[in-house]
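Section 3.1 - Work completed
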Amino acid sequence: MNKTLFEKIIARELPATIVYEDDQVVAFKDVRPQAPVHVLVIPRKPIPRIAEARPEDQLVLGHLLLKAAEVAGKLGLTQTGFRLVFNNGPDGGEAVPHLHCHILGGRGLGWPPG
């Protein structure tokens, strides 16, 4: 099976500006930012999308959310606010079939988002 773009980043086969990593998740700057601050947080475990997560993924998903908030704080977004986004499937804007959380901030974000 072919590795996804994100699996190649985790394996250091592709370059990325990594802002955080531990044994469960990696966070790096998006190469096509949609806001002044745009970072992706991905689990090392290849889960294709949130709709395919399983009960045994609960701990890594909780860890991912907590680390996304921690990374947002380290990026200076806590005071002004930030958005966490998960895309699922083509209509949801999913571009890479590896679950990931977008941290968006650094400007006002409108609502509704799409």
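Second construct:
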Amino acid sequence: MKRIVNKKLLLLAISLAIIFSILSSDFFKSKSLDIVYPVQKGISLVNNTLSYIIHFFYDKSFTYHKIKSLEEENQKLKAEILKYKNQISGIEKTYPILDFVKKYQIQNYEIAKVIGISTDNWSDFFFIDKGRKNGIKVGDLVLKDGFLIGVVKNVGDFSSEVLTVSDENFKITVRTRKTQEISFFQGLEKNKGILKYVRPEQDIRIGDIVETTVINSGAAEGIPIGIIRKISPKEGEFFREVEVETFYYPYNLDIVLVVKR
């Protein structure tokens, strides 16, 4: 009985030794690697796929927010460029005005921006962005491109209403440039006016420039208002009718010069 048990134990020990030897052999190790390779490959593929998916959505979100941020920055830069362009344009428009101020030795003035025009069929006026706070007063003359185009009619703290030379309520003493004949100008309608109280003996000529005699305190004179286009004697009346085409152009109003009293 004991011999049988000892034989079994011996066989078990030999079997274990053989198994251990096999497991420890390079051949088994090589085969075991081949066996687990598909499993490791599958795990690696899953990990790589998950990593790719995570990075894909992260990069997509990052790229979206980055593009959005760049678009917003681009819009801000465009707004800044437009702002500076408008400022440069405004400065460029003031150069002729400053040259005119120097030429006519105007001492007291204000540069203003037109902010609105009339829609009233019965009167012709526009609004500027300067008022009482800037020293503007009723009666101040308003010029554009070196021409007289209106007079301040109403004044608020921060804006003013300007009556144009084409309105029938606009009236001013004038002279003709060539012959220096004194007359009285009154607005008539869009881009037109008339010289009133012109006597038959006065030397009034078609094509002559009508200009101011004196601007306010006398600091400047000779500002053009318009040009004589038609002279018609009226039968039975003492005065001649003289039609003047004004230099006022209502569709190109932006920066104007206000000559203050």
